[in-house]
Design goal:
By secondary structure, this protein is mostly helical. The protein is 80% helix and 0% strand. It has 14 helices and no strands. α3 runs antiparallel to α7, α8 runs antiparallel to α9 and α9 packs parallel to α11. The radius of gyration is 19 Å and the shape is globular.
Length: 390
């Protein structure tokens, strides 16, 4: 196996673990809240702890990678993933829950930044391989909630699922030790004599950043609150509700593979506009639907349209910042602010109004994502399939 292929496979596996770790949090949230007697607002703070860690590490990983190399940086930080999962399985202290969820965010931020930059560099900025990378994230995101549901049905407890994922997380750290990600550089990348921040002058940088920001607002909140919403409103029983998250991520696998295939034929910004528009319509219908027959169908549609937005945005952003680890880290970390604030807003509204009202708040962020997609498409509609930046 050649070096580039081993790096690609390693990135796919570690991103699979990142997806499983990220999505298992929402699946076990109702159990954690019950175990520690937490309110909706406190549950929202716990979800935001993961996002705070993601924000901090997404930003710092880019800078640290420029200084010390991607491999050394990601190995040291990703160790926190198995530590955190073991901790979540055994603690009953809300403060430690917050700390361990912060650690999960640190680990995800490092893996997210490192793998997206590495795979995009291997693909020289093409959207297809990045969408395939995110399909592996989706596979992990699909299997983790299903694993929790299975263990709950077998009366093994959610803790057993967390311990199993922690063991797989240790294997992810070993994988990083075995692959040479620092050897991967994009074709034709300009040698950097100093830190390049010229991308900060480009309007497209801020528009793509906006798409990523509002995507993370909506995705993180849906992932974190969907199980609780379906369970507490009586739309789904506790044993079935986590499977709806798995259902959404199952179709996201197919959606990302589909986007990877059509990305060679459809202009990148037109694709972002279409996906954002579809997500806004489907999620809007979901918020006013209480028929348990239609809910799974709507969740399928939401997952299909959300599937390709983030990886396609990453691909477009990478070209905009000329594959700068600092630029990618700045955008990914900054976009992580949305995943901190929105789960807390959803929890606060759910606590003080209704759970349904909290879910409606998420729809606003999906609409804002659509607005950013429309503007960047209008700016670039004359530039062809590659969506060159202006």
């Amino acid at each position: 196996m050649n070096k580039k292929k081993s790096v690609l496979i390693g990135c796919y596996y570690t991103y699979f673990i990142a997806g499983a770790m990220s999505l298992v949090i929402g699946a076990v949230l109702p159990s954690l809240m019950e175990k520690c007697n937490l309110s909706y607002a406190e549950g929202g703070i716990l979800l935001s702890a993961h996002s705070i860690g993601f924000l901090i590490c997404s930003t710092l990983t880019g800078l640290l990678a420029e200084l010390f190399g991607r491999k050394r940086t990601v190995v040291l930080i990703s160790i926190l993933i198995p530590v955190a999962l073991f901790g979540l399985a055994v603690t009953q202290n809300p403060i430690w829950l917050f700390v361990f969820l912060l650690f999960t965010g640190f680990g995800r931020g490092a893996v997210n930044n490192t793998n997206n930059i590495t795979v995009s560099a291997l693909a020289d900025g093409a959207a297809g391989p990045v969408n395939i990378l995110h399909s592996f994230f989706a596979v992990g995101g699909c299997l983790a909630p299903a694993l929790v549901a299975l263990f709950l049905n077998l009366r093994l407890g959610f803790e057993a699922a967390l311990i199993l994922l922690a063991i797989l997380g240790i294997m992810a750290v070993v994988t990083y030790l075995l692959i040479d990600i620092d050897s991967v550089q994009p074709t034709g990348q300009k040698e950097r004599k100093k830190l390049d921040v010229s991308f900060l002058k480009l309007p497209d940088f801020y528009l793509i950043f906006g798409i990523m920001l509002f995507y993370l607002c909506s995705e993180t909140s849906i992932n974190g609150w969907l199980t609780t919403y379906l369970n507490d409103t009586g739309l789904m029983p506790a044993e079935i509700a986590p499977l709806m998250v798995s259902l959404m991520w199952l179709v996201m696998i197919a959606g990302r593979l589909l986007v990877a295939w059509i990305s060679k034929k459809v202009p990148v910004y037109l694709m972002l506009l279409t996906l954002s528009g579809g997500a806004a319509v489907m999620y809007g219908i979901f918020t006013v639907t209480h028929n348990p027959v239609f809910i799974p169908l709507l969740i399928l549609c939401i997952g299909l349209f959300l599937a390709g937005i983030y990886p396609t945005s990453v691909s477009a952003l990478n070209r905009t910042v000329d594959f700068s680890a600092f630029g990618m880290g700045l955008a990914m970390g900054g976009a992580g602010i949305g995943s901190i604030i929105m789960p807390m807003i959803t929890g606060f509204v759910s606590q003080n109004v209704t759970m349904s009202a909290g879910m409606v708040c998420i729809w606003v962020t999906v609409v804002l994502m659509l607005v950013c997609s429309a503007v960047v498409w209008l700016r670039n509609r004359k530039h062809g399939a590659q969506g060159e930046e202006r």
